[in-house]
Amino acid sequence: MEQLTPFSSVAAPLLSNNVDTDIIFPARFLLILEKKGLGKYAFSEKRRGLKSDFILDQAPFNTAKILVAGLNFGIGSSREQAVWALVDLGIRCVIARSFGEIFFSNCFKNGVLPIQLDGDEMSAVEAASLGQEEIFVDLSAQHLRLQSGAEIKFSVDPYGKRALLLGLDEIEMVLAEDSQAIEAFEAERKAQTPWIVGRADQLAKPEK
Amino acid sequence: MHLIPLRVSKADHTKKDVDSMAGQTLYDKIWASHVVKTYPGGDALIYVDRHLVQEVSSPQAFAILEEKQWKVRCPEAHIAVADHAIPTKHRDNMLAESLAARQIARLKKNTAHHAMPYIPVDDDRHGIVHVIGPELGFTLPGTILVCGDSHTCTHGAFGSIAFGIGASECAMVFATQTLRQHKQKSMRVILDGTMGKGITVKDVLLALIAQIGAGGGIGYALEFAGSAVDAMSMEARMTLCNMAIEAGSRVGLVAVDDKTIDYVKGRALAPQGANWQAAIADWANMKSDSDAIFEREVSLNVSDLAPQISWGTSPDQTLPVTGKIPDPHDEPDRLQRERLTKSLSYMALSPGTALEDVTIERVFIGSCTNGRLEDLRSAASVVKDRAVAQGVSAIVVPGSATTRIAAEAEGLDVIFRDAGFEWRDAGCSMCVGMNDDRLSEGERCASTSNRNFEGRQGLGGRTHLMSPQMAAAAAVTGRLTDVRELI
Predict the structure, then answer these.
(1) Looking at the structure, do residues A109 and A186 belong to the same domain, yes or no?
(2) What share of chain A is helix, strand, coil (3-state, %, to 5)?
(3) Model-level pTM?
(4) A105 contacts in B (CB within 8 Å)?
(5) Cβ contacts of residue A180 below 8 Å, gap of 6+?
(6) Of A78, A184, B30, B136, which one has the fewest beta carbons inside 10 Å?
(7) Same-domain status, A110 and A125
């Protein structure tokens, strides 16, 4: 996963509420088996016609690394393609009033920083976004800086922060650090609650 | 607008404020028994007992294993099945080179490589993950179950913590059988009263979501309780928990009672013998303690509900069937006004129109929300001795092959076919629009699925969510209809 270092970018305003993952990545493209190169399908329904007037196709927002959204961004389906497609378009940070939980969690697995803000701070970010200002994102310091010089603090889960800053692979970390703890848990579980142990292998039927 | 009595506790409790000796919620209990490791800040590495695997969210997860040369830690803790992209008719003619066929072939290859149980498309146990998990006894009380699909909350009906995950998390479960998770807050949803004639659990959920909003449950595990829940069948409880995600909650759950145990008993993968006795002893505790603290509580009396229909492009844009399309001019908040206007424009509806005057062209009965035997029975009871209205195309897609076979044994397929419905093979079908079962641009559908998002059932398609009975009523009249007039 690519490390998230401090950066500046214009921030594309997509301020409507309830932008669900079906809008971000329509289901008919879920038949694709890969996770790279999905950006061209992002928001497909909003980008129809020869010349799309969708915000992410308009200069200067076609180079935006930041997306500014409303309430419940990424609600609905768990499809991680929604995040992969945004990453392919160059998005590294989404600032919203609230997020769908599965989308929020998927962001951290793919080097994207989701920031939840509200009140005056969110209004200032929205204004900066609409005004085509560059916003500086510093995850290490946990703040945004607007062109006015105003700094906006944001909170982030410490583990997610570390993963993004260092570009860590969560599975590698757990395999390296926790394999013994998992084995011990499994042994105790088998002794205490044997009924819970999965036995789906018993579904096998003889070949017809 | 018809307002449903809804009580929200005035002050949201926080658990820190109360005595640490306070009782535990059902969610607390299952969570505590699955913690492998606690991290500073309170997150935990939790053990995952069960994982349902489907063709859409797994290829990229298997690719991660391949790239890193990792093994699947416990193949017997997974069941794989192709449900999303699978055609629901003419399966034998499925083009080998189609994208869906390629995706299904990939699932078969990946599961064979990792010795993971796979249910073939032509198997009598095939179906939608959230329908077959319970049917097979794979879904058990007190477990943690995940799937790369947001409607995994369905399984919470059995007193389990079940939630949808992304593909990266699927890879994590394959390789480690664990997930690093943040514990949810708890919200109790108390449903009291008795549902009237023509009212189903789907109406209850749509009314609830209209009240608390599509994001109202974000951050919470919803526990459904109350006399109306006690009275519900397991199938109704599955519909109940299935729609928790449409209120924004990853997790919905119901306490274990005799109905839960009766449902599980004897199923293919249910515990047997001494294990069964040990299991039911454990499951007796799978309920919230009487002094458990919930951070939030809402309640809804179901007795006065009318059948509900979504009119917009989010499940919270729902009204009783007796209602009229709202007027954005009446909405004081600018953002809400814009949202209403946008939804009305997409749905091609005018303010003030009575819902019952809206005509439809398509009907879909099925999905992990409403594709079970009880759902098909209730729709068939409306359809019997009636015919699908002229100009309407209607399909029934059972949630699983087991459901289809049971329905055929009762003659439900004959009732639907005689009325002019198509009777299909099992799959997600028109709920997700990944196979050929899609709406065309501008078509309007009465649907028993769970999402009315823009384009959800096909590019430019217009979805009205409702119960199976209500969809059946719309099929025979050709318009949105109050089923109470037909039964």
Answers:
(1) no
(2) 40, 15, 40
(3) 0.95
(4) 165-166, 169
(5) none
(6) A184
(7) yes
Say yes or no for a CB contact (<8 Å) between A194 and B275: yes
- CA-based nearest distance A63→chain B, Å: 26
| Number of structural domains chain A divides into | 2
Using a 10 angstrom Cβ sphere, with 0-12 exposed, 13-18 middle and 19 or more buried, the burial of residue B76 is middle
CATH number reported for the structural domain that contains residue A127 in this entry: 3.20.19.10
Residue A64 lies in a domain: yes
Residue A2 included in any domain: no
Query: Where in B317-441 does DSSP place strands (E)?
Result: 318-320, 362-366, 393-397, 422-423
Q: Would you call A80 and B451 a contact, using CB atoms and an 8 Å cutoff?
A: no
Contact yes or no for B218 and A99 at CB 8 A: yes
pLDDT at B12: 47
Contacts with A, B 180-239, CB within 8 Å: 180, 182, 214-215, 218-219
Structure tokens at B273: 């013998």
Check A102 against B250: CB less than 8 A apart. yes
Q: Does residue A180 share a domain with residue A100?
A: no
* Per-residue pLDDT tens over the stretch B395-427: 999 999 999 999 999 999 999 999 999 999 999
The pLDDT-based confidence of B435 (bands split at 50, 70, 90) is confident
Distance CA B218, CA B215 (A): 5
Residue where the block lists tokens 């061209």: A40
Do residues A77 and A180 both lie within one domain?
Answer: no
One domain for residues A190 and A97: no
Give the integer Cα–Cα distance in Å for B320 and B355.
9
Using N-to-C axis directions, what is the helix angle for B167-176 and A170-192, rounded to 10°?
50
| Same domain membership, residue A114 and residue A33 | yes
| A114 phi, psi to nearest 5 deg | -90, 130
Cross-chain Cβ contact A76/B453 below 8 Å: yes
Which two three-digit tokens encode residue A91?
């998005």
**What is the residue type of B270?**
A
If asked whether residues A184 and A110 sit together in one domain, one would say no
Domain that holds residue A36: 7-166
In terms of CATH, what superfamily is B308-485? Answer: Aconitase, domain 3 (3.30.499.10)
Name the residue among B74, B115, B214 with its Cβ closest to that of A72. Answer: B214
Residue, of B110 and B92, whose pLDDT is higher:
B110
| Residue B276 sits at the chain A interface (C-beta within 8 Å) | yes
Residue B254, SS3 per DSSP: strand
Burial of A155 (0-12, 13-18, 19+ CB in 10 A): exposed
Whether residue B76 and residue A35 make contact (CB cut-off 8 A), yes or no, is no
Query: Is residue A17 within 8 angstroms of chain B, CB to CB?
Result: yes
**DSSP label at B154?**
G
B35-181 has which CATH code? Answer: 3.30.499.10
Which residues of chain B make contact with A111, given a CB cutoff of 8 A?
none
Examine the pLDDT at B334 and tell me if it is beyond 90: no
**Number of CB atoms found within 10 A of residue A183's CB:** 12
- Interchain CB contact of B169 with A (< 8 Å): yes
Residues of B in contact with A174 (CB under 8 A): 45, 172, 175-176, 178, 180
Percent of chain B at pLDDT exceeding 70: 95
Interchain CB contact of A200 with B (< 8 Å): yes
B453 has a chain A CB within 8 A of its CB: yes
pLDDT of residue B20: 57
Q: Where in chain B is the domain with CATH 3.30.499.10?
A: 35-181, 308-485
